[in-house]
Specification:
Elements: H1 2-12, H2 25-78, H3 86-108, H4 115-142, H5 146-185
């Protein structure tokens, strides 16, 4: 116990303020404490809000990225005349059907005499298809501009005209061959 007595005697030399606090000291102390608690609560709420908004932003970015990947893939493939209107869908279906039928007819006519002209026609069709793919991109970028729609329809018409022209040339070749064979027989 001697040590404690010595400790307290040493403290007396420090001249502590032993006067009683003001009468409103407790009220001021509690007010400061409440302000601090309110600030801490606001800081916690703000921290929570910042954390939640960060998570929400991350989810939004992730969702946007995934939907962008899926939509860009599907839109790039599906943005064509059919997406413009029901009438344009019918137009596209009509032209696609006619082109498909003409291609079948063209392939049936393949022979040694017509092979070169058919191969050339298929190359021309491939160029028109490449042009059409570019027009599909232009259509989605332009917001379905009527000029792009017209160019797409024109592309279909060029394909049909090309196929018809080649089929006419094949018929001419067949006719000439038939006439040559008849002349050789006589």
């Amino acid at each position: 116990m001697m040590k404690n007595d010595k400790f307290f005697e040493d403290l007396k030399e420090l001249n502590f303020d032993i006067a009683e606090p003001n009468s409103n000291h407790q009220k001021r102390f509690l007010d400061k404490l409440n302000k601090k608690n309110t600030a801490v609560k606001k800081r916690k709420i703000r921290t929570l809000w910042v954390s939640l908004s960060g998570v929400a932003a991350a989810l939004l970015i992730t969702f946007s990225a995934f939907s962008g990947v899926f939509n860009s893939g599907s839109l790039a493939k599906e943005t064509d005349l059919a997406t413009v209107s029901p009438e344009m869908r019918q137009t596209q279906d009509f032209y696609s059907t006619v082109i498909e039928q003409e291609l079948k007819s063209l392939k049936k006519e393949r022979s040694e005499a017509t092979s070169a002209i058919i191969d050339d026609a298929l190359e021309q069709l491939q160029k028109l298809e490449t042009e059409y793919q570019k027009l599909k991109k232009d259509l989605s970028e332009s917001g379905k501009d009527k000029r792009v729609i017209y160019a797409m329809i024109s592309n279909f018409q060029k394909r049909i005209d090309l196929l018809n022209h080649v089929l006419e040339q094949i018929q001419t070749i067949k006719q000439l061959k038939k006439e040559n064979n008849e002349t050789n027989i006589i």
